Amino acid sequence: MTEADRQLLFVGGAGDATLAVDVVSTALQQARRRGLRIHVTNQEATLAATPGITAQADAASAVDFSTRGASAAWAQAQAAAGERYDVVFGVREMAQEAVAEVAEALGVPGNPPQAVHRVRTKDEARAHLAAAGFPQPRFLVCEDEAAARGFLAETTGPWVVKPRDAMGSEGVTRIDEPGQLSAALAFLPGGGSFIVEEFVEGPEYSAEGVFLDGRPHVLALTSKELLPPPNFFEIEYVIPAILPEDTAREIEEQVVAALTALELRFGQFHVELWWTGRGVVLGEIHVRNAGGWIHRMLAHVIPGLEWFGLVYDDVLGNPVDREALKPVRGSAIRFLTPPTGRLVAVEGWDEVLSHPAVIHAELAVAPGTVVAAHRSVENRVGHIAVGADTPEEAQALARKLESRVRFVTEPAQG
């Protein structure tokens, strides 16, 4: 097989949201620039709903990544029929276990499936990190409200109630006293077990990075602003986070140590954390790129960066200039949170779209849309991402542009 025949198996394809399609399209473009042929797999309905992604691939197959072992069995059958995959990769959160299983089955670089399962199961990740000596909030996996109330009685609030396995802050609620528990449980998606844990006081950040030669490499830290409790809806990111150098260094060291302790070694990572009076307290850990258009923001902050391309380069043995992988500019994004009700008009949006510093802006509502209460990232109705010379300038500009947008609403009927 010649170098031109090297192939990427992209497991899980893209979701049908604008952001998901943009992420995967970017990842596939960067694969093309490295001469990779591309085979995309996805669930049948989502494959059909994302024709733009299929058009970028050399082949596409309907394989359900949510069924344990299905993707690995399909890949092994393909290999037995003569196909060869040099790189196995994927970006969807719910497909990461399938990505790891396929890589292991084919004998190509990837994360151990058990390590991916561990970080995707929040209580298992918490327990593993605590056993390795990393500060973690006390928590309990609960099967019912009685168990949760027992935990509340034994600990000091506030607390966080959340699903064991979800993303995008779905179903996550802060409660300050036991009387709020029933409402928090009603907010959980679906049934089954859930987690109650101590609330961590302190500003929230995340670390964005990539594994090179099996070791974590932090590209940048992201600072966050959230809506006030009880929910955890993020309304601002700034990259790189505006932090003292020694604080940033300690955060990066803790992130690298935690990823190593969790036996992760491949692909991208997005690690959520808090900076507290006792230092770094790690939150959720993901073996994928960050959402929220951070992939575009990083490309501005680190000129020439191809975040997905670094994963391919690492597998293919292409040279990587690590000294060039450092932030030299700033970027910020504001997620728009209009008042609830029926939208009558949006004023000032054209000014946003015409601003030369805007990296990406999108409005997902129009007059007539009923704006619901903001309870998770799925409720984001729009965003404004900008680039500037410094993170401080980017933050100020994003907030200024957001202030120019006015949502006119009226009470929704019925």
Give an overview of the whole structure.
- By secondary structure, the chain is an alpha+beta fold.
- Helix content is 34%, strand content 27%.
- It has 14 helices and 19 strands.
- Strands 13-12-9-10-11-14-18-16 form an eight-stranded antiparallel sheet, sandwiched between helices.
- The longest helix has 17 residues, at 245-261.
- The N and C termini lie far apart (64 Å).
- The model has no long low-confidence stretch (mean pLDDT 94).
- Keywords: ATP-binding, Ligase, Nucleotide-binding.
Keywords:
ATP-grasp, single chain, LAL_C2, D-amino Acid Aminotransferase, Chain A, domain 1, Dna Ligase, domain 1, 4 domains, 19 strands, four-stranded parallel beta sheet
- The tally of structural domains comes to 4
CATH superfamily of the largest domain, please? ATP-grasp fold, B domain
Report the span from N to C terminus: 64 Å
CATH topology of the largest domain: D-amino Acid Aminotransferase, Chain A, domain 1
* Regions with little confidence, pLDDT below 50 for 5+ residues: none
Number of continuous helical runs: 14
Q: What would you call the shape?
A: globular
Largest sheet: 8 strands, antiparallel
Summing up helix and strand content along with how strands pair, one would put the structural category as alpha+beta
* CATH top level label of the largest domain: Alpha Beta
Average of per-residue pLDDT values: 94
Strand content: 25-35%
